[in-house]
Amino acid sequence: MTGEYSFSVPEESDGLRLDVYLSEELSEISRSYISKVIRSGGVFLRDRAGKASDRVRSGDSVRLSLPENSVPEVEAENIPLDILYEDEDVIVVNKPKGMVVHPAPGHYTGTLVNALLWHCHDLSGIGGVSRPGIVHRIDRDTTGSLLVCKNDYSHRKISEALREHSLTRLYETVVYGGFSEEEGVIDAPIGRHIRDRKRFAVSADGRRAVTRYRVIEHMGNYTRLECRLETGRTHQIRVHMAHIGHPVVGDELYSKASFPVRTDGQVLHARTLGFCQPHTGEYIEIEAPLPEYFRKVVEYILSRHKI
Domains (ranges, CATH) in the chain? Predict the structure, then answer.
């Protein structure tokens, strides 16, 4: 089975090289492999075979067909799901820590997609065979609400809302250090790290990224924050917080600091997700309760600091 992917280029990607754009959209696939697929004629830009150096424009259609041996069959697995909301068009799940959203090299089983295929008879096909229904992602060790689409119509509507920044996406996190201000905005472009492919960084030639934050609680040498995403770059909150000198507690990729309580990765939770129901237009807002690991981190800090 081939892996078919279809994208509509967002405004903030206007002008990027085709190979750069696809390597950012498909971060689990190397840029060199994407270039190989482009050279073989497996990528279509504006309904013609593309070249790696072609520049994408806002609204362009991009189709990518991966060879058969690069995408194994994705099978349904009987993995329990914490479903926060479901109707005929969408599902909102509360993703646990440690679960990968969709199959990728090194993670072809045990993913959220494997679980969804067991739960649902139909998911949208726009994301391709390895990402059915997936319209946005959260990192493996980030917990919380994730919206999944059951059909192509809802997928297109939610994708449009993401491009227009009309979805509500609120995260809670605990970061190192104290803040003198109660709220702020980080408007700093993010691109792939020049030396480490697994990391991202604030970069002048990156894609625009905007994170708004406000203090929920001052906790001595730590701060509990609410972060609102206006864009959805990979690792956005983690990169932005490290950039301003307040890395996320437990983030082994963007912080060298150690925390005395086990966190199993970054203390970051996708708490609130708000969207318009694709067919009715009704605004729906879903809250994912704070997980136990997050509460234990806060309790530990409060018990050892005179707040």
Answer: 3-66 (3.10.290.10), 83-163 (3.30.2350.10), 168-270+292-304 (3.30.2350.10)
